[in-house]
């Protein structure tokens, strides 16, 4: 078991990630096929061991003051035009850091084009957004803040509000004035008195620092990976075998956060809803391709898909079992599966193990960047 540590204001927000080097040993009485199946399962289990530290980019290294500033900004409606909406209005901790809606709610009470994505485990993602429009976590911040249907606050007004708030001005000075953290390369010098304390780059850096701390809590699956055979049911174990074998879910939902971070057409989107193909019109494989979402806390994150079109996990399994629309852009890993009712039930049982214990909502990591506590 490993813990990440940060002192001060975040010290009460502890997340443990379970890591084990244990290996199952097949009893001598097992048949050769059973031993082979057990060995295969153990190999798969090793692929889901969690990292022991959260990565932060060199251009925006971790600091406690910056993370605490980002936390305040994330939960404060000061960054919305009418002061009634914050980042946390759509990224709700108890809902897997999503909003539980099929599509994000706009200011007029209608639906936006896409579903609010979960922001769990974004520290390990290189490109963000359902269609990959954002190159970094820093570049995401002002998209919802300035969006007319979202928080509807111009950049200049956001910076004015924060600058005129004495507590925020002091917090920005503490987080940035004595170092170059979070500034573009062209500004990597200790700021002079003429340099504004609150800048767009600093708001982006603080929010991104906080958001990299949003890491999923350990779930029953993690205890099983760590060697506790009783942590999940036999049905869930069979579902894990299906996930990595016959159902081929792991082709895209790979690694400890259950995403390859890439974009695929799974054969569901239609019409003008072409995803990443919008940016690469001459790349047929990217037409209708959307981001592979991670599966941590997945049972808390209904409805599903980029547009919230699938209401339940059972319906998601049925969709993949059918194989989606057969077309040139459809991923080679998507095909009819021929799952039985019992196999579907086992797969659902496995997916349920990826959510933390009831009453334990996803929280923030308590860490020093890239420095795990032994």
TrEMBL record:
Swiss-Prot/TrEMBL keywords: Heme, Iron, Metal-binding, Oxidoreductase, Periplasm, Peroxidase, Signal
Residues forming coiled coils: none
Binding site for heme c 2: 249, 252-253
Domain Cytochrome c: 65-218, 234-355
Family matches, as SUPFAM superfamilies: Cytochrome c (SSF46626)
Keyword field contains Calcium: no
Subcellular location: Periplasm
Cofactor(s) in the UniProt record: heme
Post-translational modification as stated in the protein's UniProt record: Binds 2 heme groups per subunit.
Ligand binding (heme c 1): 87, 90-91
Signal peptide: 1-23
GO cellular component terms listed in the entry, alphabetical order: periplasmic space
GO MF: cytochrome-c peroxidase activity; electron transfer activity; heme binding; metal ion binding
Cofactor note: Binds 2 heme groups.
Record-given protein name: Cytochrome-c peroxidase
